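Problem: given the chain below (309 residues), write out its structure.
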Amino acid sequence: MSAETDPGTGPGPGTGQGAPTGPGAGGSGGGPSDTPGARLQTLFEGHRLTPTQRRIAHSMVRRAADVPFLSSVELAELAGVSQPSVTRFAVALGFDGYPALRRHLREVAPADRTPGSASCNAYQQAVQAEIENLRHLAELLADPRPVQRAGRLLAASRPLPVLGLRAAASQAYGFAYFAAKVHPDVRLLHEGGTMIHDRIDAAVRAGASALLCFALPRHPREVVDTLAYAKEAGLSVVTVADSAFAPVAKVSDLLLPAAVGTGLAFDTACAPMLLGRVLLEAMCDDLPDAQARLEEFDARAATRGLFVE
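Solution.
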C-alpha cells in the first residue's frame, strides 16, 4: 500500500450517498465524459454505500480499465477489504453477486486493456498509470464549464486563500506562486495548527468570497475541519481532490477530481498539478488585467536581471 494512501474507512464523502460524477462534482456543470471511470461513477450514483463499499467504489474508479477482468478476490486485495465485502458491495448495487456485476462491467467497458502493460517493470507501470490519469483528466475537461465556474469564483475573491496541508502543500504552494503574479491578493495556507481558523477569519474580513483547496491522500482530518469552518464563514469552497469520493466532497461547493498515482511507495500527483495549472488559466480568463500584470513582471525581472537568459 502506498505510504500516502489512506488506510482508514474509505474515501467516500461521508454522507452515505453515491458520489457525484464528472469534474463538476459538488457543483453545477455538465455530465461526465463517456469513459470507463465515468460510467462506473454513474453506476454508483444514488446508492447508499457504507464506508467500506465507498472504498471499493473508489478503487474501481481508479482502475476502471482493469476492473472488468478482476476476480472478487483480486478486487478485495486492490481495495484492502475482505472478499465477502466485495460480494455485499455488488448486491448493494442491485446485482445477484460479483459475477453478475463483472459481466455488466465487461458489457460496458472497452474490450481490452492497455497493450504491453504486463511486460513493463514497476517503474514503467507507475508512469503508464500517470499517463492514464492524465488521459482521464483530459476526458473530464471535455466539459469546461466546472473549471470555468471555478475560475470565476477564484478571480472574484479578494483576497484568495489557497489551502493545502501535508501531501497537498506543494500543490497549494505551486498554485499560489503563479496566481500571485496575476491576482492582487493570494494568501497561502500550507501549515496547519490553531491559527488556520484565524487566517480564514482575517481573509473573510478583508473581503474573501472563495477558498481553493488541494486535498490529496492521506486526507488530514484538519483539512475537512478547516473546509467546514470556511463554509460556515461564508466562503465558497473549490476543491481539487483525488476523487469525487474523497472525504472533502461533503464540505466542498465545487469539487474537481484528478486522480493520483499509487504505483510507487509515495503517491504521485501529476494530474492534480496539471489541473491546478488549468485552474490558473481559467482564473486568468476572468482577470482583465492578468496579461498586463504578467508583462509588468517580465519587465521588472529583466531590469533586475532576475533570470539567466
